[in-house]
Amino acid sequence: MPQTQVSLSICYKHITFIFCVSCVSSGGAAGPRLNNNQLYKFSYTTEVLVDKARGSKEGSAGYKISSDVDVNLVWRDPSSKDDQLIQLAISNVRIDPATHRSEKKNILHGSTAESVLGKTKMAALTKPFMVHLRNGKAKAFYSFWAEPATIKNIKRGLASLLQVQLRTGKVVENDVSGRCTVEYKAAQGQVTRTKNLETCKTAESGFTTHSQVLGVSKKSSSVTVFTLEDGFIRSAVAEETHSLAVNARRSAAAKVVSRQTLTLVGTEAGPLEAAGKDVTGVVKSIDAKFAAVGIMAEKVKSQCKGCPSLFEHWQSQQKQLEPASLSKATAPRSFLALIQSIRKASKDEILKVLKSASKTTLPQVVDAVTSSQTEASLDAMLEFLNFTDAKGLVLQERFLYACGFSSHPNERMLQALLDISKGKFGSTDIKESVVIIMGALIHKLCQKGGCDLPAVVQAKKLILAGPDSTEVESEVQMYLLALKNSMLPEAIPIFTKFAESEVGAYNTIALTALQRYNVNLMTNEVKQTVNRVYHQNRRIYEKNVRAAAADVILSSNPSYIEVKNLLLSIGNLPHEMNKYMLSKIQDIVRFQLPASKVIQKAMKDMNSANYNRFSKVGSSSAYSGFMAQSADVTSTYSLDILYSGSGILRRSNMNIYGASKGAMLHGLQEKEFRSQGLESLIAATPDEGEEDLESFAGMSALLFDIQLRPVTFFKGYSDLMSKMFSMTGEPMNVVKGLILLTDHSEVITLQSGLKASAEFQGGLAIDISGGMEISLWYRESKTSVNNRGAFVVTGNVTVDMDFMRAGVEVSFETEASLDFITTVQFSEYPFLVCMQMDKATFPFSEHLTKYESLSSGKSIVSRKSKKQLVPGSEFPLHQENSNMCKKVFDSNW
Fold it and tell me: How far is residue 877's CA from residue 872's CA, in Å, rounded to a whole number?
């Protein structure tokens, strides 16, 4: 008998040796196997740290949970040794700061795990739980439904650490993080598990800004290293990192680091394997209250004890949202905080704030409520606003613009605008804005793959058929502007058709819309149409229209022949148009824009580029330059000026672009069509194609890729005269309000079972106004476009476990202004025109806040700030303008 026992012992050891080798071979066990009648004793530590992206562990906020863990085999399928039911029991729980702290900075000083957790949670945490492993993969997780979600998630994190594949390869598996693609690499006695976190599918979905320039980038990694001995886990060390950064300023970044360490301390005699035919029966025989609750983490509802209600929060913030404060950073900061509060509020709570706000703060409340983009906030706005009331124009337009700028609109928001468009309006301006903003929502929903949603299909049908459904000029323009916002490929034939219309406004909208499309969509038919417009092959066009056509040609990957024909046209154009085209060509070459290479090639032909063509004089110009350059984002500006032959400013077009990592954002376009049809006032002769134009001055703005409703300064000779004599010089508002530019929200389920919430928001308080002063006495006019703004971005990463909370906030803010002023002296001929684009000195500050708190109310906060003043400057335009400005200001002096 002893001999038999020795023989079995040798055989057992032999099997164990083969199994260990199988860690790196194609045979043997699929996962770790436990022995019957044996208790495996582990030490377990899970810690979480939050900090700025480049912060050290020593300075991080966070905490560490340590415990002992007993593991034993409960049941094994007789037909498969890799089908096992395992029990785990946590004991001797300790909670400490993640890093060494002085007594003063240690909120856990004098606390025990039970005092922090509470008796109920501690009892739940130390209750045994079970995991069903088959071939090393978790097939079921058994615990108690009544346990708090936070506790069950911690247990899931520990159970997931036992999940390991002993062979090299990729696999999709479920664990606490969700359903993820995982790659295993096996070596002698060691397995490395790398989880592709981008593939993880969870029940909790977040949202992010559609614009990459204004958005947030995330980098994540998760690696677990298993050390194996005798076919079982000797140790498992997991480290997971998530780093989030604002694309426009990557130093505004925060990270969360999660670490788990499971180490086998020893073994001792344990309970015998339970009898049973299957897992379910065995689990019920042990405790009927055990339930298969799923290995994936469940949602945790955070409860804010002592937090103010929405109304209380509004009362504390309303002073910062008065119109006089909109140019200060306190306005967007309060705006962002109010959005966070509104997102947790009910419809009735939101309506209470809307109804209690003063007349001066109400427009800002409308911005915040609409930007919150919750079901309750949209319901509240639709109930609060009356679109048949002409007196409510300001609030109605603020609501519509906030819809247009929304970071993650849904189908219901578009459906709401569709329903509104079918009703009656107190103002035609609001009707136009509704349709124009519908186009913007169509574009954003299509970007997210929602082009086939019923509301999107219905709205597309409306605006695509719109231009041909009416003969009213303002309505045709409305539908064309909506299509311009929608960026629908189906709209290209419509724009191509209207590019050759007999109405100058239609031409200009159609051509500027075509310029926004991807070059690959510019077919030969489109290009031929645009070239016909520029070269006036079929009819005579206004200079505005021809200039817009030239912009489309030069920005759509022009061919050598197209460029050569443009060059050959210089010298045969109206006087100021010659100078404008020459300046445009030179600016593209100087600023090395995409068309510069083909232009330089064409300019080698002396027939195309010679002194006769390139010596044209005039006041019109085109100039591009850099506003700011950094490693994160490059901001450029361009200013195109076109005069009439009589010296009257015909068009100015200022653009500001932001570029980051290959993505482009059209931040601002202020396009003014001024002094149209005013030649009779100075007894001048209109240019070709402009003889019958009605007196008109207006401004069209495109803000953050959204075309807004154009603003008219005057239309018609009588309107001009009445406004000229009643003009106060007060600016006319083009757009004013608070805009949510950056909006990123997600819940990150960590491998440990803890959850980190990441909230990044960027708010802009903006005031764009345009004004016009005309003095017939002094024979001088001054037109100004004033841009005032304050920008705040905050990023919060918080790990909240009910009983303990740790987090970090990174933020930056600035206040800036940009003025574009045009002074015209018409006391002599030709007119003296001076343009200025000034940026005032502005403050810039960055802030870092780290915080830890207990449910008892005990907390600790640390703050750091860095502030600086960025000097102002006057942006260079072109040399002729500088010369003109000297004459204007010398004569004023």
Answer: 16
- C-alpha–C-alpha distance, residues 402 and 437, integer Å: 9
Q: Are strands 755-775 and 780-800 parallel, antiparallel or unpaired?
A: antiparallel
Structure tokens given for 816: 């800036």
* CA gap 293, 298 in Å, rounded: 9
The kind and range of the H/E element at 564 are helix 560-569
Which of 588, 574, 621, 617 lies closest to 881, judged by CA? 621
∠779-771-400 over CA atoms, to 5°?
A: 155
Q: Please check whether residue 778 is in contact with residue 741, taking contact to mean a CB–CB distance below 8 angstroms.
A: no
- 20-40 per-position pLDDT tens digit: 333 333 345 688 889 999 999
Name the E strands within 176-326. 178-187, 190-201, 216-229, 232-246, 249-269, 291-292
pTM: 0.87
Q: Please give the full DSSP string across 742-800, using - where no structure is assigned.
A: EEEEEEEE-TTS-EEEEEEEEEEEEEEEEEEEEETTTTEEEEEEEEEEEEEEEEEEEEE
β-pair type (291-292, 137-143): antiparallel
Mean confidence (pLDDT) of the chain: 87
Which DSSP category does 207 fall into?
Answer: B
> CA-CA distance, 406 to 560, in Å (whole number)?
41
Q: What pLDDT digit, counting tens, does each position of 356-395 carry? A: 999 999 999 999 999 999 999 999 999 999 999 999 999 9
pLDDT at 723 over 80: no
| Structural contact between residues 237 and 218, judged by C-beta atoms closer than 8 angstroms | no
Distance, CA of 276 to CA of 280 (rounded, Å): 9
Average pLDDT value for residue range 99-122:
89
State residue 882 phi and psi, 5-degree precision: -60, -45
Q: Are 394 and 709 in contact (CB under 8 A)?
A: no
Helix (H) or strand (E) holding 68: strand 61-76
Give the residue from 331, 357, 154 showing the smallest Cα distance to 260: 154
